[in-house]
Amino acid sequence: MKTMPIRTPALWAMTCLTLAALCGGCANRKVPLTQKLIDQYNLTPSDLMQLQYYVSSEVKLANVSKDSDLTRSADALQFRKTRHERQIIVHKDLPGVAEQASRDRLGVSFEVGGNTFSFVPRGGMFYLSPSREEGSLWLFKYDGLDYYGKSAPLSNVYLLIEESGLTRFTKETKTLPGRKVSRSPFD
How many domains is the chain partitioned into structurally? Predict the structure, then answer.
């Protein structure tokens, strides 16, 4: 049987959209980690450490160091300033794991090595939390250095989990019917 190539742009576009819709349904859906989900699935700190985490939006942090150097030569003094900037970027779809977990704080790591970002419950969801605040800047400790980020965009970063990760946690509920005192037939 001979197959016919798709010749019209409209038919080609329709085929691409259909394939995209079919493949999109296979992807893991990400949902915010909420206190309600934790309660609904009765998740323990140990359970929380088994989930796959993501951040809701990109996190950008910077560490800037400045040095100055004075060198003397036979006929002149030279003063040189240098500026070194290090950046940490956590992309939106970068997977992370919880290294520490409790009901009021999660420490999520996005690389091997023990560095974690703290997330705390606020308004029912778990939001990024700095080590400390300095005015409009948030300070984070990472690799022993202080990294700064602007609080405005960072205060809106919350944790997401793969919804499919919750399927291995089952909840069993039994609603009891109640009992009444049995009356004797002679009453």
Answer: 1
